[in-house]
Amino acid sequence: MERQVSAIVKSGHFHISNIGRIRNFITKTACKTLVNSLVTSRLDYGNILLNGINKTTMNRLQKVQNTAARLITRTRKHEHITPILADLHWLPVQYRPQYKILTYVYCALNGIGPAYIRELVNLQVPNRSLRSSSTKQLTVPKVRTKTYGERQFDWAAASLWNNLPNSSRQCKSLECFKSQLNTHFIELLFN
User: What highest taxon heads this organism's lineage (predicted)?
Assistant: First the structure.
């Protein structure tokens, strides 16, 4: 994924540089719109494949997001970035693939996702009646290798889903689920 990340970083810095040239002439809202359409969209495109990559590679993408956030808010390089990201309601890059995976799982379990994803997620069915049977846990498949096996969609989806709070897994609508998921990741970030 090194080449893919390098291409994303190069494209992100190119667009940030171009937006930076006109930043004094546009509003914060216009700048945020430009950054979302030209930079954030590239960070999010196919980011589900980036789940589980090493921290060094993920940090390269995080630096692009940090630079974009600083451009929007006109903050200096040495100011702490976490409050800036929180103010913009942006999840850090490491959580964005997880957010997308969990959204796909929710859609698959509720019949609004594609069939090929529904085949990859299997609800855990206990042999006998248990109190935990209503918690919508997924069966975590066995993997042969830790490095690549844990990056597989079905393993990552099941382990991430099972680590969610039960209230998030029980949501009745996609909007409710996304809101609770965002709150869950924000709590992980600040605690």
Answer: Eukaryota
